[in-house]
Amino acid sequence: MNNTFPVAKGISIWLKFGKNYELILQNLIDELALKFKSSVFTPHITLFKGLEKNELEIVSLLNTFCIDVYSFKVEIKKLTWEKNFYKSFFAEIEINNSLLSIYQRGLEIFQINSNEIFLPHVSLIYANLEEEVKEKIKEEISEKLPRELSIDKIAVVKTQGLPIDWREIISVIL
User: Fold this and answer.
1) DSSP per-residue letters across 76-103
2) Containing domain of residue 87, as a range?
3) In terms of C-beta density within 10 A (0-12 exposed, 13-18 middle, 19 or more buried), how is residue 3 classed?
4) CATH of the domain at 127
5) Total-model pTM
6) Which of 17, 38, 42, 141 has the most beta carbons within 10 angstroms of its beta carbon?
7) Cα–Cα distances in angstroms (integers) from residue 144 to residues 32, 75, 138, in the given order
């Protein structure tokens, strides 16, 4: 298993969870990172990544973005994976009206032109793992995951470098 991390760049906008959900997810992430000698990171849903604007401008836009945005719930659709390192194993999130609305609002306010398909998810490990290992992880943790998660915060995170280097700049409680 080769866990050479691709280096991330720019600033990201994350959706973060209520304390109880965050604790459950963080425990799972920590457990998997320890077991597979990978990096620990904060549980989140990436709304936008790789923003190249300066930090002050993004923080200022965040205040506008968060007006009339309130805490909401999302459901976990399934556990799955891709070949993309930062989507190597994750819980896919069902897109609901609140999530779609906040995403579309963000595209407008942060002036993002993106051809990427919006696939909200909560990564649970960043690692190059074999297919069979991922199947086993899925079996082991599917009962540990809540079916529903509460989104209580929006954060601006400097995601430059490796996950250990990522730093939250500011978060707003919804």
Assistant:
1) EEEEE--SSGGGSEEEEEPP-HHHHHHH
2) 11-173
3) middle
4) 3.90.1140.10
5) 0.92
6) 17
7) 13, 14, 10
Tokens describing residue 11: 């600033």
Closest CA to 118 of 128, 105, 131: 105
Phi, psi of 42, deg, nearest 5: -80, 135
Give the chain's domain count.
1
Scored b (16 or more CB within 10 A) or e, 146-159 reads eeebbbbbbbbbbb
Quick check: is 114 in a domain? yes
Residue 169 in any domain: the answer is yes
Tell me the β-bridge partners of 92: 78, 121
Q: How far apart are CA 56 and CA 11, in angstroms?
A: 11
Q: What is the pLDDT of residues 12-38, one digit of tens each?
A: 999 999 999 999 999 999 999 999 999
Query: What sign has the CA pseudo-torsion 121, 125, 129, 133?
Result: negative
